[in-house]
Amino acid sequence: MKKNKEESSSRRKFIRNLGLGLGSAAVAGSAAIAREPAEPDSGEKVMLLSSDGKLVEVDRSAIRVAKARTKEEIKKSYKGLPDKKFVMVIDLAKCKNARKCVDACQEGHMLPKDHEWIKIYLLQDSEMASKYWFPKPCYHCDNPLCVSVCPVGATYKREDGIVLVDNKRCIGCKFCMTACPYSARVFNWKDPEVEVPRDHVYDPELNIPPVEGTVGKCVFCADKLRVNELPRCVKACPMGVIYFGDINEDAVTNGVETLRFSSLVHDKQGYRHMEELGTAPSVYYLPPVNRMYPVEIGFEDLDESISERYTPHDVKKPKKNDR
Amino acid sequence: MSAIRESLLKDLTPEIEKTGRTWYVVFGIFLLIFIVGIYGLIQQIDKGHIVTGMRDNVVWGVYIVNFIFFMGLSYAGALVSGTLHLFKTPWRAPVIRIAELITVISLAIGPFFIFFCVGRLDRLPYILAFPRIQSPIVWDVIAILTDVFGAAIFLYISFLEDFAILRDNEDLQILPWKKKMYRILALGYQGTEKQKRILSFSRNVMAAIIIAIAIIVYSVLAWIFGVTLQPGWHSTIFGPYFVIAAIFSGVGLLIVLMAIFRKIYNLEKYITLKHFVNLGIVLFVIAAFFGYFTFSDYLTKWYGSVKMDKILIDKLFTEFRFYFIVANYIGILTPIIIIAIPRLRTIRNITIAAIIALVALWVNRYIIIVPTLETPFLPIQDTRADWLWYSPTWVEWSLTAAGIAVFGMLFMIISKIAPIISISEMEEAEEKRKQNQLTGEHHE
User: Fold this and answer.
1) Are B119 and A187 an interchain contact pair (Cβ–Cβ within 8 Å)?
2) Which range, of A172-176, B217-221, B284-288, B422-426, averages the lowest pLDDT?
3) What ipTM is given for this predicted complex?
4) B441 Cβ partners below 8 Å, 6+ apart?
5) Considering the entire predicted model, what is its pTM?
6) Residue B119 is nearest to which of A149, A172, A317, comparing CB atoms?
7) Mean of pLDDT over chain B
8) Predicted confidence (pLDDT) at residue A43 exceeds the cutoff of 80
9) Do B117 and A186 touch (CB under 8 A)?
């Protein structure tokens, strides 16, 4: 891709583009947009950050969906983006279980409703401490057990830190699911019955369509990163909970503010979930202190099937007929 | 032909010559169970793994339990037959072939349960096409393939002399194709001194090799669980623990099969109380070891206060308490008690103890696999009951039953091709016994 070369020539540019949220248009420049056949204005404006650091408004119709890539380009999805090392920071003080990240992820990856690549847990660390909402994507560990145990190399770690699953290679042995201590992976127990556009080319970066009998998981929206956009969950979050960025650039953004990663994690005492397991996740959490909302707000407007998740289950199994 | 061989042939070959109605009835029942299993498999392939009880948390269920169980039986068969052969155990002759057959037949069945568990059966060749050596599954594939060859060679060379005996026996009332088969399978073995020497040497070497393979291979299987971080699996004891457990179940199965064949093929003269008691003592020793391993594994988890271990132990002591009692109390203590008290050592009692050991070990596998997967590090927050608790479906049970049925069928078929007691081994043992009687020595 031509765009990639431009990116790597200037690493600084990347993070600015990241902040922009919808960078494909920006990297190619406004000229590219102008060349597109004119579409009627949707009337819906999107905030973008231009390369000189100014916030600009663009009509949604001006945004082009990235085209399916060729086979040669898809091969790049096994290597990753050059000179990048992606990192996510999740600010637990801001999360109120709005679940917009879950919806955006499911929509973007054509997942069935019961497949969640990002899950939101309700956790409580000790009895005296309060409960808090805990969004959990794949941690894209630097020492990923799922990758070590995969017998066929269907799940692999890229240079940019992203762990992907090639569902054309996956044999469905589910060893990665037992090896992952974070329950990050889901299995396609039946045919997902997804209708994909006819010209769609499979690419592990987007992982559409899901294939029966294979494993799926959060891909850090590698397809979006390739075109300099933020992951879907980051963009969808109304609270700006999720920050995303590049460790090499030492900057993360939630689409609204861009922060220095090292000082953010240092000052707010960022931590990684179950550091003691030694898996070295690429996802950091900021502790749920000085919270913006009481935890109860997370229960508002929830589907019963979802709110019931967070009530403790009876220890006893229900009888067969009750199921 | 010596008098010993004549009497052996008279006792052991009728089952090869003719087949009774009961044989066909039992075989038919097994076949029916097998067909139901095939129907279950077709359902699973057609509708997907959703027809099983497995879900995102408990991704491995009864299939993996069966896989470990059958592989365990196989390795135990190898260990028992290899050890009996290598140490020239005097009473081995009538039982060694059953142990050898357990090795090969279980080995033929075990891997199928992995095939049932794999989501994309069509992509199974990828393991050979794109193997990654750091994956314990690839270790296991290498290990099992090695074992298949090792065990098959060991079994075949132990059959060789018998094939030659059957080939040379003109009186055998069998169909011409069977005669031809023996001629081919005997590989021109004539029992010359040189041939005998080579055969004996090869058998010793193979016995030593398959003992080593069995230990390595079953440890590798244990490490599939041991290398993960899951509570209950991440244990250094798992390798030896699995090996001991395998021998426990294998000896149990050997005793059960001895009892069955003794009854149906009228082998009371050959398989006697002595064999049951001797193997019972092996079972006793292994049960003690197995109990010791089990105790130390659970004690260390229970005594400490690591959160995940505590959750797991709580689950085992509440939801799974009946399984826990069956697997780790009844299954271990019954064989120990029955065999420890000489008065209780009857063929019937020892067989019952062996059956209990066998069933308990299957349950032990179940409570190693399922409770651990039901207690992930992050609590399962879900509303779907089948996502929260694993419960096997009829598809899984039908395939389990089919596995047992195939085991039975293969044993029945092989018992029609070659005697279930090795004629050559018996002959050798009898000759030795006679010699000892003549010289006045008594080795038992």
Assistant:
1) yes
2) B422-426
3) 0.89
4) none
5) 0.86
6) A172
7) 89
8) no
9) no
